[in-house]
């Protein structure tokens, strides 16, 4: 069996959030579209990671030649869904010099003084870069909604505003890959337990994670609303089951490869006379 045939349906097709999608019915331990096993997935991650790396270099090279386009990976998921691992094991395949990475935690005092998109706009990828958001503006319709941090009419207006914001971004040349990462309640418990059992993982444990866990149904409702209202033609959501890390990583690798390929890039031509430069070099 060739690697290509391990995907019976491409990730970009099978994971795309469709109208009417019901989050409650999502099997978070599933591997949609993929027929292989963990070992196949791990091997594929290396192979396809190399492909991703080549494509990112192509974008970076074009950026150096003035191309203003970029790719933005938005990772949104509950604690322990594997956002950090995604950055390390998927984005980690590409040259860090071409990556604009940003993570969004509780807003600072300064950020609180501004519109919620203010801090987001400051971190958008430059032309030629792969931007990575570990959490994003979607926190402003997730944690904010669950904890009533602003009144419902305020967070309620944000869905349309976010759609509009993303439309402008896409029109300006950013391809947005929005990945909604979902672990099951059981798997989250296991991962939190591991953080408590292993001293090298204490740093990842935050007592607040257990508090949020108790709000699971409210979060699921907020995530459902996010998918319903902000999966658009210009910036669709991809729903990724994350109980099996190896699966979520190969799936996101494929989503990124697809995004880069859609840019239809080729190597930028030399902005100097190659023959003259060869002669000059030979003489030097
Ligand atoms: P992580 O838990 O991903 O390692 P941090 O501890 O830095 O990262 O911060 C994440 C926390 O910040 C999460 O609990 C998240 O819900 C919260 N957060 C992010 N954005 C906002 C926001 N706009 N308003 C309130 N809380 C936010």
TrEMBL record:
<keyword id="KW-0808">Transferase</keyword>
<dbReference type="InterPro" id="IPR016898">
    <property type="entry name" value="Polyphosphate_phosphotransfera"/>
</dbReference>
<keyword id="KW-0418">Kinase</keyword>
<dbReference type="GO" id="GO:0016301">
    <property type="term" value="F:kinase activity"/>
</dbReference>
<dbReference type="InterPro" id="IPR027417">
    <property type="entry name" value="P-loop_NTPase"/>
</dbReference>
<dbReference type="InterPro" id="IPR022300">
    <property type="entry name" value="PPK2-rel_1"/>
</dbReference>
<dbReference type="Pfam" id="PF03976">
    <property type="entry name" value="PPK2"/>
</dbReference>
<protein>
    <submittedName>
        <fullName>Polyphosphate kinase 2 family protein</fullName>
    </submittedName>
</protein>
<feature type="domain" description="Polyphosphate kinase-2-related">
    <location>
        <begin position="38"/>
        <end position="261"/>
    </location>
</feature>
<dbReference type="InterPro" id="IPR022488">
    <property type="entry name" value="PPK2-related"/>
</dbReference>
